[in-house]
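Colleagues,

Please find the record for the two-part complex below.
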Amino acid sequence: MYQNDAFRALDRQESLRLLAKVPVGRVVYTRQALPAVLPVNFSLDTDSSVLLCTSPDSDLVGAIDGVVVAFEADEFDAATRSGWSVVVTGRATVVTDPAEHERLSRDGPASWMPLAGAAFVRIESQMVTGRELRPPGL
Amino acid sequence: MYQNDAFRALDRQESLRLLAKVPVGRVVYTRQALPAVLPVNFSLDTDSSVLLCTSPDSDLVGAIDGVVVAFEADEFDAATRSGWSVVVTGRATVVTDPAEHERLSRDGPASWMPLAGAAFVRIESQMVTGRELRPPGL
């Protein structure tokens, strides 16, 4: 739906403000040379990086630690054919610093699934792009 | 949220049935060696391939024609921490056959944006995976 000029580009601040409104986004990465995508709940850290909480031995952690990934969130309304999407592109790293891990255990995202142990993944918000699609005629 | 056994794998038929319920999904591909993702409205063809309608000269068409991409859709409810996601992985191709183009102009997806001309992209449902996350305790 974003292939011509009927959308409005959002700046970094607008994009991050919208991103903070939704609980779930999608990690986009490469797995065995194929495009892969996984929905996850998340939160934004004080430096606007995206924080995920997952199992330390998950396939996701193995696939994205140290790698540039995209993280996407959106909201669309089919009735009005309008909405927005935001993509954060940046390096994903597993949090290894003990003090940082402790801070995120208190203030970071909680997994929606019961986990034996928590691994936090940070996606740096090196590039943030957003687009808004308005209802036709507005 | 999908990193352990608290989700249920969905079979191909369940996955396609859920996919047919939602108007918008996300094309996942590679652009300039980086992971890329673009939300688009779509429909399912009679052979369960995913159909998109976009501008013939869009960046998306140039990036994915002839390439294996992933297409993802999901629905989650933060209140109950439950939902589902489906990923179709397969080759994307621009529809070039005139009769097929005419059929899709009648019965295929309509772009949410005004287009000067319509290009239809078909993503073959070579691999269809789905996962369901149930509310805790169910």
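Chain B touches chain A at residues 1-4, 6-7, 23-24, 26, 28-30, 34-41, 54-55, 58-60, 68-70, 72, 74, 76, 78, 81, 83, 85, 87, 89, 111-116, 133, 136 (CB under 8 Å).

Comments are welcome before we finalize the supplementary table.
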